[in-house]
Amino acid sequence: MFGTRIRVGRAARRRIQGGGPLALGRPSANREAWREIRAKILARARWVCQACGVRTRLEVHHLVKRSQGGSDVDLDHLVALCRPCHAQTDVPYARGRLVITPAGGGRFTIAVVRAPSKWALSQPPTRPVEGVVAPTETASPARQEDATGWPPVGREGGNNE
User: Fold this and answer.
1) How confident is the model over 69-100, as pLDDT tens digits?
2) Gap between the Cα atoms of 61 and 70, Å rounded
3) Phi and psi of 12, rounded to 5°?
4) 3-state helix, strand, coil in the chain (%, to 5)
5) How far is CA 135 from CA 23, 32, 160, in A?
6) What is the pLDDT of residues 100-159, one digit of tens each?
7) What phi, psi does 15 have (nearest 5°)?
């Protein structure tokens, strides 16, 4: 179906085939419910990547991974991304990680953040620092700030329209 095969235990396979949740212990949706949730997220994004504006090969990204307590049913923590942008959400900060922060109401602040490591970002800076790149495409008409809390470099902090 997706090209990547994941080994699933017998009990999990029976649960999933019986229409149950894909995982236990955290809020998740069954396949039919996930199709509906995915369609809602893509429609909310107007069928474009919320980071770069591409209209093809869209996926739904969990801002909080399900393995870390995220949920399939919290729509404010799900965002539509194209495959390359989705892959960039997990790259090392040294290569430029796509960081997405929910702003509420289906809006997000999106920035490409470069730093020597994730530990270099643990303390908020008191002034702008080099290594933080301005956000990519505007994800919402709200004022956008990068991961440091400062307005984007080279922009007036408004929308791009």
Assistant:
1) 788 888 899 999 999 999 999 999 889 999 99
2) 11
3) -65, -40
4) 25, 15, 60
5) 34, 34, 11
6) 999 888 889 999 988 887 777 754 443 333 333 344 443 433 334 444 444 444 333 333
7) -65, -45
